[in-house]
Design a protein that fits this description.
The chain is of the alpha/beta class. About 40% of the residues lie in helices and about 25% in strands. A hairpin with a 5-residue loop joins strand 4 and strand 5. The radius of gyration is 18 Å and the shape is globular.
């Protein structure tokens, strides 16, 4: 039986306009790939190749300049995420599409265990059961128990990354987007994350990811998509570095 993709990206391109400089900066150009259930597709390439831009396009943080992003939902319908309305996008984010970014966004004064359990709360899971599951995954990710009941606002970068990962992995979405999730983690915790991601793959989650370390790509990826900077992006980044 042929495996059907959960996500199909066709001709994705995105440019940004710097109005104060009168410049059009290309970020991604003609990107094409598919993501399948139970498999991890890794996006690789140099700085300026548009890896994070593609992830944000799939999550609809960005609207692409051209192309299609076809998502096959749980009910079997195919939605072009480029054209979907905000109500559809918010519904898919709540039920089916998760995104672990490099930065933690959480309500102020909310306890860490509630931040992690929030995806389960929104699905109607009983609060104490959701918190119990949150505690288990926080323990797996080596976040000290003394931090579970307080807000993560003052945590270190590595601690916030653990919280962000715990929330994203606990949600078990149909499609999970990961943007350098292990960049701030120690080797022991990175191995735990690899184990948890492999468990999600075994459960059938489709994963699209960017990783900071090539060895993590080697350990986790089933498919690799190499992006190159679009024409014009290289000169912009050279200017910025200079």
């Amino acid at each position: 039986m042929t495996l059907k993709s959960v996500l199909k990206v066709e001709g994705f391109s995105k440019s940004f306009t710097l109005h104060e400089q009168g410049k059009l900066i290309p970020s991604s150009s003609n990107v094409n790939f598919e993501v399948f259930p139970g498999r991890l597709t890794a996006l690789i390439g140099p700085t300026g190749a548009g890896k994070s831009t593609v992830l944000k396009g799939v999550y609809r943080t960005y609207i692409p300049s051209s192309g299609r992003i076809l998502y096959r939902s749980e009910n079997g319908n195919t939605v072009d995420l480029v054209k979907a309305d905000e109500h559809q996008i918010l519904g898919l984010r709540k039920r089916e599409i998760g995104f672990v970014t490099q930065f933690l966004h959480a309500l102020p004064r909310q306890s860490t265990e509630d931040v992690v359990a929030m995806p389960l709360f929104t699905r109607g899971v009983r609060r104490e059961l959701a918190r119990e599951q949150a505690r288990k995954i926080l323990q797996m990710l080596n976040l000290p128990e003394r931090l579970w009941g307080i807000s993560p606002a003052t945590f270190s970068g590595g601690e916030k990354q653990r919280v962000n990962l715990a929330r994203g992995l606990l949600a078990k979405p149909r499609l999970l987007l990961l943007d350098e999730p292990t960049a701030s983690l120690d080797p022991v915790t990175t191995e735990r994350v690899i184990e948890l991601i492999n468990n999600l793959k075994s459960d059938g989650t489709a994963i699209l990811a960017i990783f900071h370390h090539p060895d993590v790509v080697d350990k986790l990826s089933d498919d690799v998509v190499r992006l190159a900077p679009p024409v014009g992006a290289e000169s912009f980044f050279e200017e910025k570095i200079a």
